[in-house]
Amino acid sequence: MGRLSGDMRTPKRNEQECHRAVTDWLCTLGPLGVEPHDDPAAVRTWQWLRWPLAGVMLLLVPAFYLGLIGPAVALAASRGLYLTASLACTCLLGRMLALSRHPTRFLRRNAMDVGIAFAALLSVIGGAAPWSAPEWMLRLAFMSVVAVRILLALQAFFVPGRLVLLLAFGAAVLALAGAGFYWLEPRVHTYAEGLWLAFESSATVGYGDMAPTTPASRVFAVFVVLLGYGMLSLTFASIAALVIGGEEKQLRRDMHRDIKRVEREIASMRDDVRILRDVLTRCPSEPVRDEPVPDKQAKPRV
């Protein structure tokens, strides 16, 4: 029976170990930075160096759309941005490698940044529009990874409790999206129309009065929609947290008051028990007299 139960537990244990291994592997792909017990200089440098690294990732967004527009000047600017981002990312990572005590482990913890730097260098090659189907897939996959990397860099600010910061970030994203549609979409003639199209895309309203028509604006709309989903979810979560937070605080105060009252009652009962024990200890014990127990089966005398 024990062997059977052990055999039944083995597949479950193997499944848990496999899931843990996959989770650890996925975690190594993210920008984990330096380990806490690494060199103190490396830890301090990473605290401020991660933000320039995230800023370098932002250069890849206009590089993608400049290459998608098509003119020779835009293509040259796109290649320049790709090359600049790749060199800057390489220099920043090289600085961290020089400070870290475990360079190999640092590279493994920041495999995503290494891959983005290498892919940005490869993006300098070619890039002339129109793109072929394989090039479309590769460049879209690359931009998806870049978008995930930027969101991971900003995840410290994306918490439900920071409603004001979320609203400010959402307004900034909406303004930039409006400028992007005004630049990429030929049917958008004013910045106000670009803002309206950005709001329709991020809120997934779809009134039908305006829609992206060019490949560049359609790809841009995909990222705006995905980012809008995330921003709206976090905003609603923050509002719900504010509404529920007051009730939770009141509930915690009531529970704290009840716990204090129970503690006082227990302390009072302990005092009573101690006083009763002292009284019983001081009083002399009286001997107990044995009294005959009447026999219920005895017959009365006549």
How would you characterize the overall build of this protein?
The protein is an all-alpha fold and 302 residues long. It has helices at 2-29, 40-58, 60-69, 72-99, 103-109, 111-123, 133-153, 163-184, 191-203, 215-282. Helix 6 (111-123) runs antiparallel to helix 7 (133-153). Helices cover 76% and strands 0% of the residues. It folds into two domains: 20-132; 157-272, Helix Hairpins. It is built from ten helices and no strands.
List its traits.
302 residues, mainly alpha, Helix Hairpins, 2 domains, 10 helices, 76% helix, disordered N terminus
Briefly, what is this?
With 302 residues, the protein is mostly helical. Helices cover 76% and strands 0% of the residues.
